[in-house]
């Protein structure tokens, strides 16, 4: 079956669910996610559906600030590189097209910005 582009909420859910299943089983980033998300995975996944639905489909179902919950995570560039590697593999295995490419660009920009901000806060000694 030929791959299609991301085009609806069902595609978003497939992307998010497949990605986070891989994340949960990853040796490097899995333990961090699993510790932080214990008992809260369904809530997190719902939030991620709305986040990506808003970004990619322009259906405005997400509101909030994505960075603050991440600012004290024990992560560095290697973690973001792995997150991005899994995200890219997941998108490429499921979809092809303009929105699939947009998802990867948006994810890369977020990974870069989150890593930059986390390093900044860490270096400032902010608690």
From TrEMBL:
Ligase found in the keyword field: no
Listed InterPro entries: Globin-like_sf (IPR009050), Globin/Proto (IPR012292), Hemoglobin_trunc (IPR001486)
Descriptive protein name: Globin
Keyword Hydrolase: no
Keywords attached to this entry: Heme, Iron, Metal-binding, Transport
GO terms for MF: heme binding; metal ion binding; oxygen binding
Gene3D superfamilies: Globins (1.10.490.10)
